[in-house]
Design brief:
Number of domains: 2
Distance between the termini: 38 Å
Largest sheet: 7 strands, parallel
Strand content: 5-15%
Shape: globular
Helix content: 40-55%
CATH class of the largest domain: Alpha Beta
Number of strands: 7
Order of helices and strands: EHEHEHEHEHEHHHHE
Strand order of the largest sheet: 3-2-1-4-5-6-7
């Protein structure tokens, strides 16, 4: 059997929120497929540690950088550092995000503002920083991580749903605007992924209270609702990201790809 060729050889990628969870899995998958990857995170030390671990595990190239996606100056400075290290950015993955379950009438304005700042404004700022180089090169891939909650609203999740619906709208707008420049823009809409964020006592406890469940029953509750009867994994999302970053998806743009085990089909 002939070994399959790595699909991202020679590509340079920037992944936000790359130190942990989905972002880390995407960065590792990209490196294993031959890409040179900038792992960017608000926790710069964790980003550097993750990049070093990925390099050892995948025998490839990865670099850690500090980036606050909601702050223009931080985004521009980090993108400049990434360009100096990589030479160009062929693939941008906007993965950084935050999430909190809160009854709407109890939601402080600060939570609304910060959720949209990170989850939606962050995508806008990173795209605006990276797109000029892609336009000049006449090619590029942008992958925005939305959510199944970006297609169907959920109670006590207003800020998160609003931000992720917004990501899909922004994805479609940019796909239209930059198609003639050879740039594709797509989104991935994962189902529930039990990352560190979901497993935190704050998040898990809030969801358990919402459903009247014990925290330890939440995972089984989700599984019972999913046609494939298991939660989404970071690897499931990473495989979809590799596909969208590769030439295999060359004729796809403006799409929002569900990775939800059949729970969301629209």
């Amino acid at each position: 059997m002939v070994a399959s060729q790595m699909r991202l050889t020679g590509k340079r990628a920037l992944v936000t929120g790359g130190a942990r969870g989905i972002g880390r899995a995407i960065a590792a998958a990209f490196v294993s497929e031959g890409a040179d990857v900038a792992v960017c995170d608000i926790d710069g030390a964790a980003a550097t540690l993750t990049a070093d671990e990925i390099k050892r595990q995948c025998n490839g190239r990865a670099h850690g950088f500090t980036m606050d996606v909601g702050e223009r100056a931080s985004v521009l400075a980090c993108v400049g550092e990434c360009l100096a290290a990589l030479g160009a950015i062929d693939i941008l993955v906007n993965n950084a995000g935050i999430s909190k379950v809160t009854p709407f009438l109890e939601m402080p304005e600060s939570l609304w503002d910060n959720t949209l700042r990170v989850n939606l404004k962050g995508v806008y700022l990173c795209c605006q920083a990276v797109l000029p180089g892609m336009v000049a090169a006449g090619k590029g891939k942008i992958i925005n991580i939305s959510s199944q909650s970006g297609k169907r609203g959920n109670s006590q999740y207003a800020a998160y749903c609003a931000s992720k619906f917004g990501v899909i709208g922004l994805t479609q707008s940019l796909a239209q605007e930059f198609a003639e420049s050879g740039i594709t823009v797509n989104a991935i809409c994962p189902g529930v992924v039990f990352t560190e964020l979901w497993q935190s006592p704050d998040m898990l406890g809030a969801y358990a209270r919402k459903r009247g469940l014990a925290p330890e029953a939440v995972e089984r509750y989700f599984e019972s609702k999913i046609p494939l009867r298991r939660l989404c994994t970071v690897e499931d999302v990473a495989r979809a990201a590799v596909f969208l970053a590769s030439d295999e998806s060359a004729y796809m743009t403006g799409q929002s790809l569900n990775v939800s085990g059949g729970l969301e089909m629209s």
